[in-house]
Amino acid sequence: MITDIGPMSVNTNFLLIQLRQLGDVLLTTPIARIIKETHPGAAVCFWTEAACQSVLQENPYIDRMVVSERTSNLQHTFSLVRQLRQSRFDVLIDFMSNPRSAIFSFLSGAPMRISYRKGGRGLLYTHQVDPGNVPYAVDYKKALLQPLGIKNEWHLPEIFLTQKEHVFGRDLRQKLLPPEKLRLITIDPSHRRYTRRWPAEHYARFSKLMAEQMRALPLVLWGPGEEETARKIVAASGNRAMMAPETSVREMAALIKAADLHVGNCSAPRHIAVAVGTPSFTILGSTSSGWTFPAEIHTDCSLGIHCQPCNRNECSIKVKCLTDLLPQDAFEQLARWTHASLGWGSE
Q1: Does residue 70 register a pLDDT over 90?
Q2: Is the dihedral of CA 132, 286, 193, 157 positive or negative?
Q3: Which pLDDT does position 5 carry in this prediction?
Q4: What is the structure's pLDDT at 71?
Q5: In this structure, what is the dihedral angle of CA atoms 29, 35, 38, 43, given to the nearest 10 degrees?
């Protein structure tokens, strides 16, 4: 097995591939930092899709990006292959590990191509890794550094906000939070998979409990196609919750940064909360606690029925793990955790 391709500390050229989703791209950012800190002279390029590039902007550990669209024509495909080959990458690490990224990895011409061990792709990579059982999602990604002999304890995802973005978040908090409220809590009720989406009516009741018993303003985040759901939650909460203004991804990150707590489904905003240092409380459906950052200020809540976690996108029992997790029960767990870990309730 090749464990070294030469003077990596001098001028090794790395390509990291994570095309999507937003949360997965963010969870790959620790790899860029680890490479830069262990091999200071290395160049790190990150290939992602246009919808995800914003979370990588301003990142001092990423030298440049290759940005593509999810669907592309033949001309764009040839252009992308030419761009990859002309870049002369020494080490390519494919975290996406799907058929498309595997083919592009091979066509890149990189002499060292690393990805996960999956059947039928052995000829496309020089090294395949089986991460085994790992406690946190970033550790799964860090396993791909094994063929390079790189070991590092860092596993915190990061998003680097500008000063202007920090000011945006702080100003919006000051504008929205009424004098009688102590805290701002951002809420993410969305997910494209229904097996990871707590019912909107549960979020409405949950918001009402937070507003009444924690003196909090629940602020419902939303993105393209999610506005109607946000409006329904606000209305069903008796307007105890408020609808967030329309924001970009980075503005949303700044707003989460300015909040006292983030609550939501197992989706990208929970990872943004980790990246900006805001405590998070995640409602789990089909996914496991392996996506929860291992720190006292981050926790998750699940019903714990026999089939959890199943990691499936379909459900034959009407997602009982989510529908049967009642707002009052989730709130009681939230209240215990915020008291014990965040010191809430001692004001």
Answers
A1: no
A2: negative
A3: 37
A4: 75
A5: -130
* Contact by Cβ (8 Å): 233, 265: no
Cβ–Cβ < 8 Å for 173, 251: no
Task: Evaluate whether 266 touches 237 at the Cβ level (below 8 Å).
Answer: no
Residues 138-150 pLDDT 10s:
999 999 999 999 9
Do the first three CATH levels of 8-148 and 163-342 match, i.e. the same topology? Answer: yes
Place of tokens 């989406």: 197
Element (H, E) at 249: helix 249-258
- Homologous superfamily (CATH) of 163-342 is Glycogen Phosphorylase B; (3.40.50.2000)
Task: Say whether 43 sits in a helix, a strand or coil.
Answer: strand
Identify whether the C-beta of residue 287 lies closer than 8 Å to the C-beta of residue 311. Answer: yes
Domains of the chain, residue spans: 8-148, 163-342
What residues contact 87, with CB distance under 8 A and at least 6 apart?
13, 15, 45, 108
**323 vs 305: CA distance, rounded Å:** 12
Topology annotation, domain 8-148:
Rossmann fold (3.40.50)
CA 293 to chain centre: 11
From 16, 26, 47, 17, select the one nearest 267 (Cα to Cα): 26
Is residue 182 predicted with pLDDT exceeding 60? yes
How many residues in the chain?
347
Q: How far is CA 89 from CA 59, 105, 110, 199, 242, in A?
A: 20, 10, 5, 46, 48
DSSP letter (8 states) at residue 339: I
Q: Which residue reads 């033949």 in tokens?
A: 74
